[in-house]
Structures are given as C-alpha cells and as structure tokens.
Model the fold of this input.
Amino acid sequence: MERNHRRDAPPPRGAPAAPSPHGTAPGLAVTVTHFRPSPGIPPQAAVPQGQPIALSSRRHHIDDVHTDPQALLLEAVAFAAEKHRHQRRKDADASPYINHPIALANLLKREGVDDVAVLCAALLHDTIEDTNTTADELRVLFGEIITSVVLEVTDDKDLDRAQRKRLQVEHAHAVSERAKLVKLADKICNVYDMVAAPPATWTIERKREYLRWSKNVVDRLRGAHPGLEAIFDDVYAKGVRALGEP
Done:
C-alpha cells in the first residue's frame, strides 16, 4: 500500500502501562509462552516472546473447518488495534490509525462482501508493512489464507516509494480476487480522505498525484466488484472537483 498517511506516536514518558490490548480482565493476560504455534512454524519465528495475544486466538483461524467468523473478526480487530496503537494518520487531527483498516472492513461489509478472509485481511492489511508484524505471526493467529491476502497487498519497504507505486500499478491485475477487494476498499478510503481529511503537510500537487496514481491502480482492478468500482469513481470525481484535474 502507498503509506503516506501514517506517523508513529510513542506514549509519553511516565505514562501508566496500557491495559491489556485485547480487553482481557486483569490477571488473564496470555503471552506467547502459553501459546502453541501451528505445526511447521518454529516457535521463535511465530510471535515475539512476551507479546500478549487474545485468549480465543488459539484455534480461530479460517483454515480450521469450524471457524467462528465473528470470533475471527474480533481477533483481527484486536490484533490490528494492538499493532497500530502508537500510530496516527497524518491529517490535521492526527486520527488514530486503526480507524483506517476498520473503515475498509466496514465498507466491504456494507457492499455485500461477507467473505471473512477478505474482511480480516482488510483489518490486517497494513500490519506487516507498517508494524513489526511478521507473516509467520499472522499465520499462527489467522492461518495461511488470510496471511496470503495480506502479503499480496503489502509493499516491499526495501524499495523506494516510486518503485513501490509503479509495482502496485503493474501487479494490480494479477492479484487474487480477495486481494483486489482489499485494494479497492483501500483506494476508496484513501481517496475519500484526500479531500475529507488529507495529510496536513501535503501540497495540492501531491494530493493530485495520489488521485492519479490511485485511479491507475483501480483501472487494473476493474471487474472485481462493480459496486466498489462505482464508489471509487464517485469519490475520485469528487476529489477532482475539490483538488483540480490530476
């Protein structure tokens, strides 16, 4: 993902310890030392030792036959909230970053996407790219299906920004149908925010360039979901009216 909307906000010195990120009651925090990773994944590669995990995440990933979709979605929300807890959007209000992945999942659900793998991938789509999350960590907690979608929408941060943007355009048509839905939702939300809550320091030209690039990506995703594509076209047109032709 093009990630120009994030900034880290470390907690102030002397701040009290945060409550358990997954809402567990005092004394019920679970750490990796109590968690058995999936077969074939070395424990040391799965989740950093001492990191808290949700109590119910042990057997709730979608690769299981009897997965509870609601429990899995709640696990994904809790995990993303924990991973993005010190990050903020770059709008003038410095909105909590977690608002963004939640907006993606909400949009997808409202537009009739019920595939829990897509919804969870939307919630988790920036965790590998923008936090210390590893692919093995996601595999342990959410399974291979969701992890593979997250990886498809994750940019290689070892490349410079121009290369990452070029590769998103070039590869858009070849990603899975699930990844296309996540990408469409991401572009819709980011283009909407480019007008409603833009990065405070971006110039008008940079905002226009983002609109232009987003449309180039979406044009190579067309056919995946006409309803989402129509929403993108609408928010893009409003962006052009507000910011000028890219």
About this structure: The longest strand covers residues 6-8. The chain has one domain: 29-243. Residues 10-58 have pLDDT under 50 and may be disordered. The CA atoms of residues 222 and 229 lie 7 Å apart.
